């Protein structure tokens, strides 16, 4: 019997109460079903991974694109899905609220709002505005009692503003504004991770691991609650695709195709 949306959301909240879990990022329905079949407890969308599937660059998709994608992911699996909701697809807090309410209706169990502007000259929203945007998202989620878990993201380390004191100050402000999970993509060292975990405790922290780094156990020992991989699974898939395609185009040979995942196994997985 399909799991109800209320159950998915309740399960997602329980996962954040103790321990540490990996929340991998599928980029389409097929990859979501594959990850669910492997045994993960929850999934998260990836803005970049999804954008590439429709031939767009990261941060160039529309809210229509994303909501259609999220609805498909949530309908495809009996697992909670967390949405990479970028910056809420708006600048003004009231418009962020409208979009968050729409995002919640796709069936997600959680969603994140980040503070990057997309403007290289001023890559982060002013602190006060960034806080108001989180408050607006919180209000929108609470308005329909959806139970969607709100994650507040500070993008400082991804845009060259890697002052950990500044980042932690923002995270604490986002927590006070209603964010229930905190996320700083780009932190890597044990010292950085430990500082963030301690600063926002007891609220849970999401850690991004995009390549070799800490294991789940090592991250758990530092107090991390959730580990996501962003667009890394999508990049891995594209790596195999591009190697094989370039070999055909440039050398006229087909040896890379032998490394593909068995078609029979894929058919069995998607029955």
Question: How would you describe what is shown here?
Answer:
The chain has an 8-stranded parallel sheet, sandwiched between helices. It is built from 11 helices and 8 strands. It folds into 2 domains: 5-230, Phosphoenolpyruvate-binding domains (TIM Barrel), CATH 3.20.20.60; 232-271, no CATH class. The chain is of the alpha/beta class and 271 residues long. Helix 9 links the parallel strand 7 (205-208) and strand 8.
Oligomer: single chain
State the helix count: 11
Question: Helix fraction?
Answer: 40-55%
Beta fraction: 5-15%
User: What is the typical, i.e. mean, pLDDT?
Assistant: 97
Say which CATH homologous superfamily of the largest domain is assigned. Answer: Phosphoenolpyruvate-binding domains
Structural class based on helices, strands and sheet pairing: alpha/beta
Short description:
This protein is an alpha/beta fold and 271 residues long. It has helices at residues 5-15, 29-38, 47-53, 63-76, 93-104, 127-143, 164-176, 190-200, 216-221, 232-251, 263-269; strands at 21-22, 43-44, 81-84, 110-114, 149-153, 181-183, 205-208, 226-228.
Topology:
Blueprint: H1 5-15, E1 21-22, H2 29-38, E2 43-44, H3 47-53, H4 63-76, E3 81-84, H5 93-104, E4 110-114, H6 127-143, E5 149-153, H7 164-176, E6 181-183, H8 190-200, E7 205-208, H9 216-221, E8 226-228, H10 232-251, H11 263-269
Parallel strand pairs: 1-8, 2-3, 3-4, 4-5, 5-6, 6-7, 7-8
